[in-house]
Automatic annotation (TrEMBL):
<dbReference type="InterPro" id="IPR018120">
    <property type="entry name" value="Glyco_hydro_1_AS"/>
</dbReference>
<keyword id="KW-0378">Hydrolase</keyword>
<dbReference type="InterPro" id="IPR017853">
    <property type="entry name" value="GH"/>
</dbReference>
<dbReference type="GO" id="GO:0016052">
    <property type="term" value="P:carbohydrate catabolic process"/>
</dbReference>
<comment type="similarity">
    <text>Belongs to the glycosyl hydrolase 1 family.</text>
</comment>
<dbReference type="Pfam" id="PF00232">
    <property type="entry name" value="Glyco_hydro_1"/>
</dbReference>
<dbReference type="InterPro" id="IPR001360">
    <property type="entry name" value="Glyco_hydro_1"/>
</dbReference>
<feature type="active site" description="Nucleophile">
    <location>
        <position position="323"/>
    </location>
</feature>
<dbReference type="GO" id="GO:0005829">
    <property type="term" value="C:cytosol"/>
</dbReference>
<dbReference type="GO" id="GO:0008422">
    <property type="term" value="F:beta-glucosidase activity"/>
</dbReference>
<protein>
    <submittedName>
        <fullName>6-phospho-beta-glucosidase</fullName>
    </submittedName>
</protein>
<keyword id="KW-0326">Glycosidase</keyword>
């Protein structure tokens, strides 16, 4: 069952969102006017399979996505679609225990096949799981996992991750058999791990943290478990059930590697007498050389260039930056938002991205998170705004829901207009 309270008097902004379901045509026009070339969105698994284990998809849900994707196509906007974006039908959580159960592989396979068959004519680029590595840091968000008292959480998490990796590989296999033009990618929450000091213990901890972070992409790109996974499993008391058939399935590897980038991380062998970096779901020591956002996330444009080089050197596969942006308090004054801080953040990160390309990194594209304000996944707040379009809604649900272009909207529109290679 969900670990979150369900008091009917409580208000949860994420339950209502920003009303995109009803306003998508107008919102797509905002993207078109901006000059956006590609729009990243996600299909809600439970909108197609409300309980998760149905044999047939919900036609009303299929109709919505046909209409949405067709609207994008009419307006000349390419699509990048995520199949599972921190989204597991609660029926599967309550009835099967979510991804701890191997039956989930069959349910996801049915769901992903339905998506490829129904929407393949509109969507060329796909991601199987959003930030799959977040299962290690927030198991319920990442995989719908809850735990019993005394349970070996690491065992459950890594076995669930194995089931997710198999489901992802089977989705890749089917998509390629259906249409060789479909491109399927994996995704992690990216960000370089810096040693807190030049103490070899800190340097080695940064290496271990980076291995843990790229554990998933190592498998999804290379098609097998990395050698260091044996050490991880031994240290965490984990014994994964991996069959020979599983090993064959994992050989169905992705076409590209995508990642989100908001911040770098700082690793240490000892947390004693060190200040923690607040706000980010990935545990990290505060980096004294970097400024932070309103929510305590470090701002590190050079870290994006470093991350691009590290991931590309590791895999030699095309990269796709699918999330990058600044969560901040925005003030609406006289129906305008002067978010120069966001423009500065994005300008510096885009310049770092361009430097990464000059370093030789093969980059498919860059997508800002997000173009239109939306509920923050990490905090559940509306007030943590990422968009370049302001949505008139507050944390308590009050507001008209109207869309107002921020200063950054016009800046980004001009940037796209003058840079034909920018996604």
């Amino acid at each position: 069952m969900s670990p979150y309270p369900t008091n009917p008097t409580d208000y949860f902004p994420s339950r209502d969102g920003i009303g995109f379901y009803n306003s998508y045509k107008e919102d797509i026009q905002l993207l078109k006017e901006m000059g956006l070339k590609i729009f990243r969105t996600s299909i809600s698994w439970s909108r197609l399979f409300p309980n998760g284990d149905e044999e047939q998809a919900n036609q009303e849900g299929l109709n919505f996505y046909h209409n949405l994707f067709n609207e994008c196509k009419k307006n000349g906007i390419e699509l990048l679609v995520t199949l599972a974006h921190f989204d597991v039908p609660m029926g599967l959580v309550d009835k099967y225990g979510s991804w701890r159960n191997s039956k989930m592989i069959t349910f996801f396979e049915r769901y992903s096949r339905t998506c490829f068959e129904e929407f393949g004519e509109y969507v060329k680029y796909w991601i199987t799981f959003n930030e799959i590595n977040i299962i290690l840091h927030s198991p319920f968000s990442g995989a719908g996992l809850t735990f019993q008292e005394g349970e070996n959480k690491n065992q459950t998490i890594y076995q669930a991750a194995h089931h997710m990796l198999l489901a992802s590989a089977l989705a890749v296999k089917y998509a390629h058999s259906l249409d060789h033009n479909l491109k399927i990618g994996c995704m992690i929450a990216g960000g370089a791990f810096y040693p807190y000091s030049c103490d070899p213990k800190d340097v080695f901890q940064a290496l271990k943290d980076d291995q843990e972070n790229t554990f998933f992409t190592d498998i999804q790109v290379r098609g097998y478990y990395p050698s260091y996974s044996k050490r991880i499993f031994e240290e965490k008391g984990v014994n994964i059930n991996i069959s020979e058939e599983d090993k064959e399935i994992l050989k169905n590897t992705v076409d590209f590697v995508s990642f989100s980038y908001y911040a770098s991380r700082c690793s240490t062998s000892s947390y004693e007498n060190k200040e923690m970096n607040s706000g980010n779901v990935v545990k990290s020591i505060k980096n004294p050389f970097l400024e932070t956002s309103d929510w305590g996330w470090v701002i590190d444009p050079l870290g994006l260039r470093i991350t691009m080089n590290q991931i590309y050197d590791r895999y030699q596969k095309p990269l796709f930056i699918v999330e990058n942006g600044l969560g901040a308090f925005d003030e609406l004054v006289d129906n305008e938002v002067d978010d120069d801080y966001r423009i500065d953040y994005m300008q510096r990160h885009i310049e770092a991205m361009e430097d990464g390309v000059r370093d030789g990194v093969e980059l498919m594209g860059y997508i800002s998170w997000g173009i239109i304000d939306l509920i923050s996944a990490s905090t559940g707040e509306m007030s943590k705004r990422y968009g370049m379009v302001y949505v008139d809604l507050e944390d308590d649900g009050k507001g008209s829901g109207s869309r107002i272009k921020k200063k950054s909207y016009y800046w980004y529109k001009n940037l796209i207009m003058n840079n034909s290679s920018l996604q």
